[in-house]
Amino acid sequence: MEIELFECELSYRVGCCKVFLFDVKYMFSKTEFHVLILGIDKAGKTTLLEKLKSVYSNLEGLPPDRIVPTVGLNIGRIEVSNTKLVFWDLGGQPGLRSIWEKYYEEAHAIIFVIDAACPSRFEDSKSALEKVLRHEDLQGAPLLVLANKQDLAESVSAEELARYLDLKKLDERVYMLEAVSSYDGLGIKEGVEWLVEVMERSKRTEMLGARIGPASV
Ligand SMILES: Nc1nc2c(ncn2[C@@H]2O[C@H](COP(=O)(O)OP(=O)(O)OP(=O)(O)O)[C@@H](O)[C@H]2O)c(=O)[nH]1
Ligand SMILES: [Mg+2]
């Protein structure tokens, strides 16, 4: 009987200790979201990723003239407030678009980049976006559409692009369209901050469970 009592107390203490350690780890850890950067080739996805790194971290991103068309996957990590964002930037050439869906299941949100200065490719962007949004593995994923290359005089505004894409058809999807320039950084912070806010509240995040990353010191 005494032995049983001793074991019970011991395991209780060990139990307390474990709970305490877990809570401390939890307090200092940060929520981590996965964001997919999609869009047709030459839209400016990788240039955007590099700009994100330089805006949100001390690291200088690659300058535009050193960026080559993406064949595999580029990963970028940044922190916004108390949130870690992991970006997955994939190649947009037609032959590479079939790879996109391998990343859908684990993505908390999508950024879809469009070259707003190239109307001849809007149709291609529109059908690529529609295909992405039809995929069942992306159900409920918030969408940020970026009308990129606003530094170019010929670029169309976010409103014009929205009309063309007919985004009203999106029904229940949480989305926003933002005019940005991956060269000078215009609109990037606004877009990312909106995305963090909606991911924190989204049902999809609840469903996926935002992964808790280790505390960074
Ligand atoms: N003027 C201007 N050019 C841009 C901007 N963003 C990207 N570019 C240019 O657009 C071209 C394509 O940029 P990338 O970032 O390689 O495009 P991508 O979408 O990653 O292309 P893929 O990897 O082939 O899918 C490059 O010449 C960039 O310098 C921008 O905001 N303004
Ligand atoms: Mg690229």
UniProtKB/TrEMBL annotation:
GTP binds at G39, I40, D41, K42, A43, G44, K45, T46, G92, N148, K149, Q150, D151. Keywords: ER-Golgi transport, GTP-binding, Lipoprotein, Magnesium, Metal-binding, Myristate, Nucleotide-binding, Protein transport, Transport. The keyword DNA repair does not apply. PROSITE patterns: ARF (PS51417), RAB (PS51419). Mg(2+) binds at T46, T70. Transmembrane segments: none annotated. GO terms for cellular component: Golgi apparatus. PANTHER family: ADP-RIBOSYLATION FACTOR-RELATED PROTEIN 1. This is Small GTP-binding domain containing protein.
